[in-house]
């Protein structure tokens, strides 16, 4: 749903555009309840489209043990939520959630940069899927 700033030269505030139909408050423009397809293109959004939220599980292989705090810091820097932990397989695993574009940045960091003094052999990602809302409130290290 997107707020519309104007339609056919008239400025309308607080108007919502949902599913291809302009939803007007009852008293905004008397008698108009929707906008025909022919003039929908004249509606301009006041905000960018919301990015799809995704969740993805990851595991990083190599000399990566004891470096989870750096992964947590990078997740927080990117304003993602999720978790990270060391495993008994000498890997680091976790889950990332956030806007798709930002999660892709974190995946690149896990694959190619990682924490100082680590050696990344490979990073795997699984169970990537869209989510309706974030399931965590921050990025944390699990013990």
Could you outline the blueprint of secondary structure elements for this entry?
Layout: E1 2-7, E2 10-18, E3 21-23, H1 37-40, E4 53-63, H2 68-77, E5 81-86, E6 92-99, H3 100-112, E7 119-130, E8 139-141
Parallel strand pairs: 5-8
Antiparallel strand pairs: 1-2, 2-3, 4-6, 4-7, 5-6
Radius of gyration: 22 Å
- Bulk shape: globular
> How many domains, in number, for the residues?
2
Compressed to H and E, one letter per element, the order equals EEEHEHEEHEE
Percent helix, as a range, is: 10-25%
What structural class do helix, strand and pairing data support? alpha+beta
What CATH calls the topology of the largest domain is Alpha-Beta Plaits
What separation lies between the terminal Cα atoms? 40 Å
Mean pLDDT: 76
Low-confidence stretches: 1-30, 32-48
Strand runs, count:
8
Q: Which architecture of the largest domain would the CATH scheme give at its second level? A: 2-Layer Sandwich
Q: Which CATH class of the largest domain?
A: Alpha Beta
Strand content: 35-45%
Describe this structure in words.
This protein is α+β, with helices and mostly antiparallel strands. The protein has two domains: 2-40, no CATH class; 53-141, Alpha-Beta Plaits. Helices cover 19% and strands 41% of the residues. It contains three helices and eight strands, in the order βββαβαββαββ. It has helices spanning 37-40, 68-77, 100-112, and strands spanning 2-7, 10-18, 21-23, 53-63, 81-86, 92-99, 119-130, 139-141. The strands form two sheets. The protein has a five-stranded mixed β-sheet with strand order 7-4-6-5-8, with helices on one face. It has a three-stranded antiparallel β-sheet with strand order 1-2-3. The longest helix is centred in the last third of the chain and has 13 residues, at 100-112. The model is unreliable at 1-30 and 32-48 (pLDDT under 50).
């Amino acid at each position: 749903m997107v707020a519309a700033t104007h339609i056919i030269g008239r400025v309308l505030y607080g108007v919502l555009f949902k599913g291809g139909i302009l939803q007007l408050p009852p008293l905004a423009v008397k008698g108009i309840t929707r906008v025909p397809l022919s003039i929908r293109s004249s509606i301009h959004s006041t905000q960018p489209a919301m990015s799809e939220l995704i969740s993805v599980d990851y595991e990083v292989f190599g000399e990566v043990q004891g470096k989870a705090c750096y992964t947590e810091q990078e997740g927080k820097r990117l304003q993602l939520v999720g978790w990270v932990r060391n495993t008994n397989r000498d890997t680091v695993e976790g889950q990332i959630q956030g806007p798709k574009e930002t999660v892709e940045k974190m995946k690149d960091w896990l694959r190619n940069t990682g924490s100082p003094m680590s050696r990344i052999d490979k990073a795997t990602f699984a169970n990537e899927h869209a989510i309706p809302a974030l399931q965590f409130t921050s990025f944390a290290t699990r013990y």
